[in-house]
Amino acid sequence: MASKTASHFVTKTVLGIDVNERYSRMPQDLDQRARETITPADLFLEQEPTISEFFKELAPSRDGVHRYFQGLFPSASWVPRYCLSWLLGDVTAGITIGLVVVPQALAYALLAQLTPAYGLYTSFTGAVLYWLFGTSKDIVIGTTAVGSLLVGQVISHVDSASPGKYSNEEVAHALSLMSGAVLLFFGLFRLGWIIEFIPYIPISAFITGASITIMSTQVPVLLGLSEINTRESPYKVIINTLKALPDTKLDAAIGFSSIILLFAIRDICAFMERRHPQKKRVWSYISSLRMTFVMLLFTLVSFLVHHGVPFEESKFRIVGKIDPGFKKANLPSPDTELLKLVMPQLPAVAIILVIEHIAIAKSMGRLYDYTVSPSQEIVALGAANLFSPFMGGYVCTGSFGASAVLSKAGVRTPLAGLFSALVLVLALYALTVVFYYIPKAALAGLIIHAVCNLLAPPKNLYKYWQLSPPELLIWVIGVILAVFESLEISIYVGIGLSIALLLFRLARTRGKFLGRARAHRMVNHGNQHTLSRRSSHATLLHDESGRDVFLPLDHKDASNPDIDVESPYPGVFIYRFSEGYNYTNQAYHADTLVTHVMENTKRTSEEHFEKESDRLWNDPGPKGQKKNGDDLPFLRAIVLDFSAVNNLDITCIQGLMDLRNSLDQYASPDAVEWHFANVNNRWTRRALASAGFGYPSSKNQEALGSWVPSYSIAATLMDKDVQLPGDTRRPADIEAPTETSSSSNCSESKQLSNSSDELSIMTKNTHVHAESHQPQSMAAIFGVDRPFFHIDLVDAVDAAVRDARNKDHKQ
Questions:
Q1: Which of 131, 211, 253, 466 could form an SS bridge with 414, CB 3.0 to 4.6 Å?
Q2: For the chain, which domains are there?
């Protein structure tokens, strides 16, 4: 007792906090009125959520901790039950993807401004580690065109900031280490949901811009133009390339021949797949190996041309010497200055790595009917990038082309990655002599062929236009910035514009004022119409499936504008939030509500001033009142549909309180009733109740006296089979007695409920038979201490109309 007194003294006297202030508007007899209304059904008082309950939900359970650590190594769940029958599929798929990855890795390393061997190191690390941490059997982690391009641009950025201080390898290793650490952090803390904040359109624009950039950098290599500075913006590279066309070398013959051959093999195989569907897998397999075949062909040509010829005297540019094995494997140790130089480029690189990888993983999961964990995929991606520099590699992510080949090759488990790693090891130790003769123009042709598929086709742009024209504009801006500025600016501006569009839609989307219409369902069984033309009218009058629907009064939606939508009752307004309710749009919603309400109602009593000068300067007075104002109703109630609202912030609550005070002053001496439908979040209900919503105000006794209590009840777990007499579906709506006659009450109840699914029971005029159910078998669905929080919009509107009609009868 003493501790409670001391606590009260500290909060009330010292801190000035009145913990009971929130209950100042609440009538003290709510539970008593509910008991008189719904007896013999049980009462239910709403239990408010607490901070301790919130933290208790966040605290991990023992089972949750066990599942977390078990989820870090998904391989532990399937390796013990690995079937030998899966082995053939994994070996075949692994070897196939190894043959596909080798030429890609060699080519993409050139985009990163590194020697081809670094691409093999990178792909090896991803193949070795992914099966341990990954949740997809169809994904291949390795070098990609976009990721390699980003590495090359980071290297150029560091070189321009500190010329000659750091080698390309050091910069690439530092970027991979930092990317891996960041991704591993997000994955371990299960923050994969954050990637949902990155919209699709900026990524699509970035990929298209990156594809254009890649092609612009590879065309000079294709043509043998070594003097072109490919580090400049793409448009400058394109212009300089066009100027240097007269200096084209023999490399162009190799490059263009490789591109033509690659496209020819792809198209011929695609045609044969359609022509001979029974051999579709064979032709798909041949198509997937086209890059390997083309590289081998032109390597053979190069060998025949350059065998015995010194490297300096080669007829066209070739790769040159590659050290066998993992001679670049070491312990990376970037200094602080290098990390600072790389840091500004890290967000864009990490975003693209994650988006590209997760998109592929989810796509494969949908295609082959299994579930991937985004957070665990980020763990796998982070681990691969963190350990890649130790093997001599750079940043890696999921490769869509290689993953598509892997899935078509009959892979059974993620273990196929180990077999592709064996192919890479074989290439590093046994084929480096062959790699010496690979023409760089052929590698450039391979890159151009690969990235052509990344360009957004016109049909996609047309789809964007159909789906959302503003986002198509964002896409165009992103591509333009990528071509004329840089990829980093493109991704940042694209995401920024998408967020701005989202905020604009949140802040400026109008809510809808709703009216009521009666809907009936008509079903055609077989070839015979359920309702004949002659009997349709009589049938509709007794159609038990008829129900209330609420449609916008202005018909600015997809509903038929010829449908008769009526206002629920003069002075009662139904308002539905369209895009949630938060601090960005609360003022806009408040203005919309006030404007509409005051245009369609009149003041309950005129304002009187002793002097005309006491009137506010912006109040026009009686001369400025709207015409035909006497024909308008008084404001009675506001019904808010919270079906699109989950959480509320303080700005929203304060805005609702200010709006309530303003409308109460407009309706004075009466009080406006505020009814809420579909408020399902307990914290939102608590916030509204703390602000004085959810129950009639005790500060206006006249309004409180006009209130007709009504509650929705349903069967409890004690007896699910019980039904009230005549009730066809739960819940039932139980009403308190009114001052009108029994017959008028019954007819009014039918008009107000407007639903055959509910039963309106007048507690004194219609009796519930005790023998139909046990005394403890029914209970209130929601707390009876907050009767203005309704189960649905029908219930809320019926309650508001009932009270408004009761007020009008009294007047």
A1: 131
A2: 84-455 (no CATH), 509-521+542-607+628-699 (3.30.750.24)
